[in-house]
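task queued by scheduler; priority normal; single chain, no ligands, no partner chains; default sampling; output format set to structure tokens
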Amino acid sequence: MADFLRLIAILLSMFKGLGLQRRFLWAVGLLTAADLLFLGLRVIITGSGRYWFVPENLALAWLSLGFAWLLVRNLKKQRWLSWQNLGLTALWLLFLPNTWYVLTDFIHVYPNGEISQLFDIMLIWLLTLTGFILGITNLFIIHRQLLARRGLLNSWLFIEGAILVSSFAVYVGRDLRWNSWDIIANPSGLLFNVSDQIVDPFGSQRTLNITLLFFILINVVYGAFWIFTYQPKRR
């Protein structure tokens, strides 16, 4: 865990002011390219498209960081409650769950006779590592903006809300098989499908279990990172 946190701390230290540094993009881009290379090698060796979802999940995770970056940059010019920044916040929150969802892709890893199971574990591990780095980066840069504007308590309440929404969205994606695009492509169908869970969140044991499990996991990882890196300003 310490090495993982140190890696993220080093990557985030490459931020300057409100902009993403080129070295950060190169670093996370390297992880993304390595994962795609593993996938390409697997397709060449096996002729199987079993893990076709990897590029899509990586793209969705990167989109969340893109919206966070646009939001932070736009906050220099407009207040948070402007319709542009509210829209960017909504888009950021919409794609944020994809950074954590990738962990559930380990469900696809099992002995299949196509290639070494260890190869598949490494493929999905790279996907998960990249997703979690993007997710923690997302939370951190938005959290920093909230902290400067809304104080410690309110900023943490917002982050906890974002983590809770993300955790529920992981359940919606894995069990109900909806994704972020469906909020735009089929909002009524999505709302109808999840309405029971929203109205009665304690009615489904599985919904509660998955949401709570990811809520605790993300909080532990992000909380450990925050403790490891955050330095309050000295007066």
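post-processing summary
- The chain has nine helices and no strands.
- The radius of gyration is 18 Å.
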